[in-house]
Design a protein that fits this description.
The structure is a single chain. This protein is mostly helical. The protein has a domain of about 45 residues. The chain has three helices and two strands, in the order ααββα. The chain has a two-stranded antiparallel ribbon. The longest helix is centred in the last third of the chain and has 30 residues. The relative contact order is 0.04.
Length: about 140
Amino acid sequence: MSKVILNESRKNELCELNRISEVIYETSVDQGEVKILDPRGPIQHSTLNDSATVSVMTRRQVRPKKKQVQFTDKPPDNSKDVPRPLPTSPKADDVAPVAIQAERRSRIAKAQDEELRWSNLKLFLRGEVEKLGYKK
């Protein structure tokens, strides 16, 4: 539910707040500046008058090398060179019948519970609260 604002100063403030995204994302007319600090002298901020090129490397471009711990009593693992078998989809024989039965029962219970909730919602909307299947 929204409120009606009658105060003129509050209206102006809200109008300014509604424009925040426009103000934030406005493109600037100024070009970027490059400042160089002189490493030999005191810290000075100087602006270059000539144009410069800046290259940026993103985190995605940098690939950190994975570190591996090797033990002296174990030979190094050269599993990188060994081709891995392609993953296969599970077969019906791989799943226990008890697990299938439990999953089936839980899905049936969920469906029945959802059906009861929908019927209770319909009864509630009709005003027949005394006929609800369970109270919540």
